[in-house]
Amino acid sequence: MVAIITDEAAPDESVPAQATEGEVRRFDGAIHLWLLAGSVLVIVLAATMKVHEVHEVRLPGTWFSLPELCYFRRATGLDCPGCGLTRSFISLAHGQLLAAWHFNPAGVLLFPVVLFQIPYRLAQLLRVGRGHRPWNLTTVAQGVFIALFVVLIVQWVAKFLPAW
Fold first, then answer.
1. How far apart are alpha carbons 88 and 152 in whole angstroms?
2. What are residue 58's DSSP bridge partners?
3. Other Cβ atoms closer than 10 A to 10
């Protein structure tokens, strides 16, 4: 077995310390494949679903609405920071920017991040498949996700502030 040395300061705890290069490549490939599949699924579902009467989401060709899944809203009667993201994604996939903004402004920022995952994960799979190390965008990704989290919370708090 060969010890893998990375450029990171701390070892990656999800990969065994004594992994072979092939094992590390398979692990990296599996992660990118799952993230690619998840991103494609989200985009395809957003493109095929429909928003019905503002608060309902329907699958194509069906007459019934999907159940509401937000337990926070069920328990408190208030929207959570993520309420409306599904409807926002659906609206964006159908080119309805204003409707998407109305459902959840953070969706307008998050949807492109999910969309970006498709070419990025494909490129990562190609790199790993050719024996190259995947790109390490950890710092960038952390910054993007922190910014998205802040936007989610700010827009949520803004909903409860009285209009000036």
1. 13
2. 50
3. 6
Give the separation between CA 1 and CA 145, rounded to whole angstroms.
36
Return the structure tokens found at 34: 């799952």
CA separation for the pair 108, 101 (Å, rounded): 6
Question: Among the residues of 19-161, which ranges form H helices?
Answer: 21-48, 71-76, 85-93, 97-103, 105-129, 138-160
Q: Are 127 and 134 in contact (CB under 8 A)?
A: yes
The amino acid at 148: L
Name residues of the chain where pLDDT drops below 70: 1-25, 163-164
For residue 109, give the nearest of 49, 72, 153 by alpha carbon: 153
Amino acid symbol at 78:
L
Buried b (16+ CB within 10 A) or exposed e, 112-144: eebbebeebbeebbebbeeeeebeeeeeeeeee
The pTM assigned to this predicted structure is 0.75
Q: What is the pLDDT of residues 67-95, one digit of tens each?
A: 888 889 889 988 899 999 999 999 999 99
